[in-house]
Amino acid sequence: MTIEDVQAAVASGTATAVAIAEEHYARIAAEDGPDGKDIHSFLALSKERALAQAAKIDAMAAKGETLPPLAGVPVGIKDVLVMQGSPATAGSKILQGYMPPYDATAVQRLEAAGAVLLGKLNCDEFAMGSSNENSAYGPVRNPRALDRVPGGSSGGSAAAVAAGFAVATLGTDTGGSIRQPAAFCGVVGMLPTYGRVSRYGLIAFASSLDRVGPFATNVRDAATMLSVLAGWDALDATSSDREPGDYVGALANPVDGLRIGVPAEYFGEGLDSEIRAAIEKVLDSLRAAGCEVKPISLPHTKYAIPTYYVIATAEASANLSRFDGVRYGFRAPGVKTLSEMYRETRDQGFGAEVKRRILLGTYSLSAGYYDAYYRKAQQVRTLLTRDFLAAFAEVDAIVAPMTPTPAFKLGEKTDDPVKMYLEDIYSVAASLAGICGLSVPCGETKAGLPIGVQILGRHFNEETMLRVGLAVESAQG
Amino acid sequence: MADVGGVTKEDVLRVAELANLELTADEVPRMQRDLNAILGHIAQLNELDTSGVPAMAQVGEMLGAEPELTGEGLREDVVRSSLDRKAVMAAAPETDGRFFKVPKVIER
After folding, report:
1. For chains A and B, what is the number of CB pairs under 8 angstroms?
2. Which of A195, A392, A429, B9 is the most buried if burial means most Cβ atoms within 10 Å?
3. Which residues of A touch B15 (CB under 8 A)?
4. Strand, coil or helix: what is B100?
């Protein structure tokens, strides 16, 4: 089901929003748990809130009122965004039992636009991971291949759309956490420009990189979601007051004449040959649609991963200092003093990857290392961003593979953090630069695993990126 | 850049203390190994000459030449209602309803 299908069904009365919500809950009940396919995409369901909203939409439809753009659309929320009345865990034991007393701005905007909020979706702990195996509540399986990871950190958000549990979902992307799982699960995932969507109510990982964005089954639905999510928010000082574009309307514009850049650095050693072939086919289809496809260079690409892991962990070490057992969630039992409480709560509450990143971030910010690591990485971030600004002086969008390999097996990379970090090789540069990105399915491997292509756009030019995405999608037939 | 591959067990414990993390005995060697591996990878940044390159902390800074892209950012400094205290306190591990309760602060 697409957003357009739901809109048409609810407006014409062929289905009620309540029936559509119940149908999705029935599928979740049958398939998401250990008695079904054990996909484990949902951590909590919010049936009461969802069905009340659906009934409200049905009452509006019955009266013939104009329906909002997401009227009756069943949507899932990554469990790093807070939603009043539902537990918020961020995939961590340290927030176990926390019931947030407010809604994230993105959540509030979706509901105001008529969306039916089904519940909270599994993810890597504090969104730290590339496989969803770092969730304290257990991993998520890839609906397209149950022995494989869905990608991460928004693995539950990607899997829920791929499995038909939700028509669209919200994820967050700090270094690739929307786009990589979208590619692994064969759905569309969008990273809006930094500042385009409010981060208020997002449990922070790395604030200069964290972004909220949608997953959907197709490019048009992703555009519809962005049109609801985008906009200035007084509660997020980094949100932009630039007027959002007409993301859905822009899709009517053809792509002929657009200049598409193909960065040589994204086609190097380590790229799976079937993915390479699929991307070549995408480029052929864009040429056939009248685009001018030309090689470009993003010379600092190989430094994106080390830069990212310095900056993201430094920010994480500061952001995660708030989890101390005082105000919310878990507190270690049997402690006698305040400092013992802090240390025991954090040791028992955080998982291994989160501790690893807090230690790395604390190390690189500590006396004597700040200039060598953190400042150096911030300087290289400037160079990486300049690469993109220079490229976008020559081209309107950039097209590249989204991931070096298709979805890997559960447990395959859990023992080697550097190997896991290299999974993000094609995604982190756009995160550091703040530009927008889109992952669109473009076929599958011989083994039947989905392949994703990424389309990168200029800061605040989601329209062009989405147009190219639609052209790519249409060419898949 | 500082020497890499040289994180000792003592360094791990010192950083853990700074971060208020109490590592168990078997976590320490694993974290030492992983930090050395990751810092070894990060050492590639040394290949780049960054003298004179400004540090970038926020995306908006890089778009400074195009102020219409960056927005004003800061909201008006006016009083607005905050979350209900009861609702906030209800989420705390230990509270008397008005304040957060914690164990003894002064250890001696």
Report:
1. 198
2. A429
3. 359, 362-363, 366
4. strand
CATH of the domain at A113: 3.90.1300.10
Identify all chain B residues contacting A368, using CB atoms and an 8 Å cutoff: 2
- Could you give the number of structural domains in chain A? 1
| A240–B69 CB contact, under 8 Å | yes
Q: Does A307 touch chain B (CB under 8 A)?
A: yes
| B65 φψ region: left (φ > 0), alpha (ψ -120 to 50), beta (else) | alpha
The DSSP call for residue B81 is -
User: Which residues 115-144 of A have a C-beta within 8 angstroms of B?
Assistant: none
Residue A291 maps to a domain = no
Shortest Cα–Cα distance, B17 to chain A (Å): 9
User: pTM of the full predicted structure?
Assistant: 0.96
Q: What is the least distance, in Å, from the CA of A101 to any CA of chain B?
A: 6
Identify the DSSP state of B43.
G
CA quadruple A226, A228, A234, A235: dihedral positive or negative?
negative
pLDDT at A157 over 80: yes
* Domain assignment of residue A29, yes or no: yes
> For residue A335, is it within any domain?
no
Instruction: Sort A177 into a burial class: Cβ within 10 Å, 0-12 / 13-18 / 19+.
Output: buried
Mutate to test the interface with B, among A99, A243, A363 (most CBs of B within 10 A): A363
Q: How far apart are CA A377 and CA A313, in angstroms?
A: 11
What range defines the domain where residue A110 resides?
A: 3-250
Place of tokens 């685009």: A291
Answer whether residue A326 is part of any domain.
no
Instruction: Write the pLDDT tens digit of every residue in B47-100.
Output: 999 999 999 999 988 887 444 445 555 667 889 888 899 999 999 999 999 999
pLDDT digits (tens, 9 = 90+) for A225-244: 999 999 999 899 889 989 99
Active site (catalytic) residues of A: 78, 153, 177
